[in-house]
Amino acid sequence: MKTLVSTPNIIEAEQIKADLQDADIDAQILEDNNTFFASTPDAANYRIIVSDDNFDKAINVLQNYRTQNKENE
Description:
The chain is an alpha+beta fold. The protein is about 40% helix and about 25% strand. Strands 1-3-2 form a 3-stranded antiparallel sheet, covered by helices on one side. It is globular.
């Protein structure tokens, strides 16, 4: 498994995961609670991981997600 992307925003993580699943890519969200680096004790970072075999395809899905979000801003 490889980390595709990390984000402090759970909503963004869920949206990316949904896009990956729509592309038939199994993805998992892992929550990292590292208070040493966090700006607040409750801060979390969410990592989306995918299998090594799907990593290149997942990068394309992530790029499409980011492109669509820039257009919507």
